[in-house]
Amino acid sequence: MDADRSVSNVVLVTVDSLRADALGTYDSSRHTPVIDGLAERGTVFDRAFATGNWTPFSFPSILASRPVFADSGEIGVDEVPTLAQTLSDAGVSTGGFNAANGFLTSFWGYDDGFDEFEPFVASVGSSLYSRYLATHPTVEAWLQFVASPLRRIRSRLAGNVDDRPFLDTSRMFDVEHAATDFLDDAEEPFFLWIHYMDTHTPYVPAPRYIREVSSGLLGTHRMLHAHTRTGLGWEVGERTLAELRTLYQAAARQVDASVGRVLDALAANDLDDETAVVLAGDHGEEFQEHGHLAHYPKLYDELIRVPLIVDVPGAEGHRISRQVGLDAIPPTVADLLDVDAPDVWSGTSLAPTALRGERPPDEPVVSVTVRDEEVTAQPIPRSLSDGDLLVSVRDEAWTYVRNVDAETHELYYRPEDPEQQLDRTAGEAVAGGEVAAADNGADAAADGGVDAETEEPRVIERFRPLVDAHVELLRESEANAAAAGDDAVDEDLEARLEALGYR
């Protein structure tokens, strides 16, 4: 296939809470052979950043190429042309399947433009038992692990492989089967979006994947130990943290295997040679790098740096070091399908990069979150009024984070401080006065490095207007939406949101 010609179809795979370093293409110690194969064939973006730490803060960029809150003051995509709607209007068949993430439903406009759309939220069930499990995911995880030895014995007696969990807590198979059914009947050109939840807490992978990513000595009782301690709010020590990381990596491998079966379905339907595959995480996951687990309202790399891979049949593979934001996904997909992107979209197409290796624009990436007085007491993040607004800006080397409402800021130089532990602003307030200009210490050294200390004021001055402009955009939308009343979320949707850890 001519790499300069648009492909016929695109499959977009998004994985909830997937860190970049959970994949072998970003960390050679990881075991994700299917996705790593995509990366070897395609283009890997080493510095891809989400636009927020939560699904509802990130997905307006992924499926509508717009910053969260920028149009309606709310977290959905009701007020903007979505990727699916744009493609559908151009005659592209569309299917979207979400593994029961309550933030990605028709309530917030995510069904817009899909010919087939299923969020699987209704699969929670109406019985007291089902609703209890939906709102107590740790109990569901315990049932999974307690029953797994019996299931494994039964599976071996029946001659089946040990690759399925006792309970499909992540709804992975629901999504996978819907996706493969769509491919069996697909009319070209088509766009297929599938969203996995396996790497979102609680991590409940099938036993075989735990064995694949560990020494094989991590038994059911040790996994129960990790879920018990975290579920009861007990202190998480090194042992428990290691167990949680193992569970997380096993869950990533479980997704990897499912993606492999979807790719097999593409091949079985003779679609693989004309279908581009885009894979991304919607945000990351913290393992106490900054004091917590899961994804509380912070903007450090463990939550914002995500994988982004674009595999176009017939195109050579590339590795891109420049930073890109996930708002590039909609224009990239549209470009690959030879569909014009709406002017309102904020991202820039990466199709020239994936097709010909052209360098993407050298533009910093902006991300946001909203934080309550206590980091762990965050309500469901639906508006800016839920707490303080935090905005971060990233380029290839620097991360700048400003708490807009508290008037504080942080600055990190990632080449020397990849985990962002050393705040170079020393806690100084951002309000009042200009940052003093430094002498010309920003010139690259012979080895390509910079004098980070003398460059700090210049970085802040360069990033400050980007923060100001983004805040102005969000505040204006908030003011325009202030008169609109909040729609009530139905009971079933609230149950699934609670299952994800949101109030």
Describe this structure in words.
The chain is α/β, with parallel strands linked by helices and 503 residues long. It has two domains: 9-121 and 168-201 and 244-365, Alkaline Phosphatase, subunit A, CATH 3.40.720; 383-485, no CATH class. 35% of the residues lie in helices and 16% in strands. The protein contains 14 helices and 15 strands. The chain has helices at residues 33-41, 55-64, 83-89, 128-135, 137-157, 172-184, 207-213, 220-231, 238-268, 301-304, 329-336, 351-356, 452-481, 491-499; strands spanning 9-15, 43-49, 93-98, 116-118, 190-196, 275-281, 286-287, 293-294, 305-306, 308-311, 318-325, 365-371, 388-394, 398-403, 408-413. The strands form three sheets. Strands 1, 2, 3, 4, 5, 6, 9, 10 and 11 form a nine-stranded mixed beta sheet that branches. A four-stranded antiparallel beta sheet has the order 12-13-14-15, covered by helices on one side. α6 (172-184) packs parallel to α9, α7 crosses α9 and α8 (220-231) packs across α9. The protein is globular and about 60 Å long. The termini are far apart. The model is unreliable at 129-138, 432-448 and 495-503 (pLDDT under 50).
Quick recap:
By secondary structure, the chain is of the alpha/beta class.
Keywords:
15 strands; 35% helix; 503 residues; disordered C terminus; 9-stranded mixed sheet; 4-stranded antiparallel sheet; Alkaline Phosphatase, subunit A; alpha/beta; 14 helices
